[in-house]
Amino acid sequence: MGIHVEQGVPILDRDLNLLQDLVAATMREVFTRYIGNGTAHGNDGFAIEALPAQNGQNRQDFRISTGAEAPGSCLVGGIEVTITQPINYSAQHLPELTTPTRNRTDLVYLDVTLVEEDGINDAELFNSDDVGVRTSVRLKPTWVVRVAEGQETVPARPEGHSYHPLALLVRPMGKDTIEQSDIHDRRTRGLTVSDVESRLSRVERMLALPAFTPGTPEFVPKSGVVNQSVTINGKNFDVGTVKVFFGGEEAELVAGTSARRLVARVPAGLTPGGAPVSVEVAVSNEVGTATAATLFRVDVNPLFAPPGGQFSPNHGIPQTEVVLSGFNFNASDLKVFFGDKQAEVVGAPSPTEVKVRVPEGLVIGTQSVDVHIKVTTTAGEVTSEDLFKAEPVVPKPTFATVPFTPKLGQVDQPVTLHGTNFSVGGLKVFFGDKEAPVEVPPTPTTIATRVPAGLQAGQVVVRVQTAGGEIDSSPKMFTVQA
User: Fold this and answer.
1) Per-residue confidence at 42, pLDDT binned at 50, 70, 90?
2) Which InterPro entries does the entry mention (predicted)?
3) Cα dist. 11→7, 15, 18, 54 in Å?
4) 22 pLDDT exceeds 50?
5) Which of 12, 95, 127, 135 has the fewest CB neighbours in a 10 Å radius?
6) Distances (CA, A) of 191 to 20, 39, 166, 210, 218
7) Contact 281/287 with Cβ under 8 angstroms?
8) Does a cis peptide bond (omega within 30 degrees of 0) precede residue 406?
């Protein structure tokens, strides 16, 4: 028995062996977890190949190849095994393969384990050149290639064994030979640090990249207009800063989203031509972008802007020009209604604006009326949420043939003006540039006033202003006396 003394404490060979086993097991676990199983870059070991058909060599048999350059190698469960020369499956003395009684797929896999060598099979362990006794044992990697008939995935492995798929054998019913066309390689190949990075990137994309849910509607509804709410189904919608795009235009996200559900509003600007279009729906975050397999159809139904800004101005009398704001106003056969009265469209509408004139006949009498505005096209119709205040037409004041009596007078002289439409509101009277007092409410046809102070002797024009407009007495003049 070999003894090693460490800080005065004897350590036996089995202690060192146990320590080595623990380190090796840890390393194998790390390799498996971060590098995986497979062949290294530039190595083609353990390729499964068909044997020649001559003399029935390929009957229930195949070759396990070293690859182009021997030895071939493969990393399985953190253990690297090598194949120094080609070997036939049958040479391993395993149970013979069977002839399929129906079309069958078999899995060829590599079974790797560690076998303890104690000197019986390895004379070097007896240290004949020095101490002449065995001081340790070795763990030797061993392998065998097995076939799981009728299976496409590796079977459950016993303790201490690691499996790696090498190939699938797709075997027709009743055929006892194996040809190259029956063999489909399933090895993981080209293991390098960059490959590890690539596979970690794939894992990252799987765990963090947004994705649409297969087998369920990617989004509902399948079509809609600007500002329509669309529910998107998928996964990883809660990772990073998520954005949704319709045809490249970013959409507004609506509250209430989750890892598997997004609600977004169809953005503006997708139908500048006034015709329906089908666009891609995409969801992105810092990792990447997922694009739906189906397209979303953007309809051109007319639509008003959000309430509070649907038109300007929001009041007026007939013939007032009003600009409507919204979407898809350039679709064909555009009509605009104030209440039930059709308005005149001024000029050519754009996708987002149309100018109209307030129609006649909205107000009967002198009281304003609130009406909704409706837009119709061949694609549909929409009614404003905002109200337009239709105001009555206020008649303009007029002077009679004799506009005032008397025709002359000094400052503070009472004067009566004669005409029509004097009582509509907003009344002001001027002699020249001096405003005159109106001491009593006017009648529709008369205004009682006085000659204002500050006027020089001479002739002046008399003006009347009301809510309906302004009129002056010219060419008839009032004479101011000294």
Assistant:
1) confident
2) Ig-like_fold, Ig_E-set, IPT_dom
3) 10, 6, 11, 61
4) no
5) 95
6) 26, 6, 15, 27, 36
7) no
8) yes
Q: What is the dihedral of CA 216, 217, 219, 221, to 10 degrees?
A: -150
The DSSP-derived string for 465-480 is EETTEEEE-TTS-EEE
Where do the domains of the chain lie, and which CATH numbers do they carry? Answer: 3-194 (2.60.520), 211-298 (2.60.40.10), 303-390 (2.60.40.10), 398-480 (2.60.40.10)
The residue ranges of DSSP E strands in 122-248, in sequence order, are 138-148, 161-171, 183-185, 211-212, 219-220, 223-224, 229-235, 243-246
DSSP per-residue codes, 313-375: SSEE-TT-EEEEEEE-TTSSS-EEEETTEEPEEES---SSEEEEEPPTTS--SSS-EEE-EEE
Q: Compute the distance between CA of residue 28 and CA of residue 13 in angstroms, rounded to an integer.
A: 22
CA distance 163 to 267: 53
Distance set, CA 221 to CA 217, 228, 276, 294, 373 (Å): 9, 9, 15, 12, 28
The residues with which 283 forms a beta bridge, in sequence order, are 244, 290
Distance CA 345, CA 349 (A): 8
pTM: 0.46
pLDDT value of residue 126 = 53
Is the preceding peptide bond at 313 cis, omega within 30 degrees of 0? yes
CA distance 325 to 20: 79
Strand runs labelled E in 92-159: 104-117, 138-148
* Closest CA relative to residue 260, chosen from 219, 314, 303, 321: 219
Do the Cβ atoms of 354 and 345 come closer than 8 Å?
A: yes
C-alpha atoms less than 13 angstroms from C-alpha of 101 in its C-beta half-sphere: 0
How far does Cα 245 stand from its chain's mean position? 4
Contact (Cβ atoms closer than 8 angstroms) between residue 167 and residue 184: yes
CA atoms 16, 19, 23, 26: torsion sign: positive
What does DSSP say about strands 428-431 and 398-405: parallel, antiparallel, or unpaired? unpaired
Least confident of 32-46, 240-254, 370-384: 32-46
